[in-house]
Amino acid sequence: KRRIMLGTYALSAGYYDAYYLKALRVRRLIRADFDQAFGRVDLIAGPVTPSPAYKIGERIDDPLSMYLFDLYTVSTNLAGITGISIPCGFSDEGLPIGLHLQAPPFEEERLLRAAHMYQQVTDWHRHSPAMA
Known about the structure:
The chain has helices spanning 2-12, 16-38, 63-68, 74-79, 108-121; strands at residues 44-47, 82-90, 96-103. With 132 residues, it is of the alpha+beta class.
């Protein structure tokens, strides 16, 4: 919500050329990096978040911490590539950890097949965190 409001303000305040066009250039660079990577690999795998999920009801007053929580997945959206997040374990505190898979644009079938194969050899998707 904070990002949408800030973005709307920036575009309405006469900063279109300064911010929007620059953001489009950065987006093209990010996409080019992914295109280069997908020239060498079929998929990219990594964590969904830099740390386990927050506990239910936990209040986070640190906007930077909340911003960084989607740091590993936002590039998927910026680059316009396909991505999926699937369960892959739990932290020592019992909080869920996710695996983020990325594939080239329009390769949803490849991505879903890989996620399905992972779930065929693991059972993390069948477990739920303990509720306190």
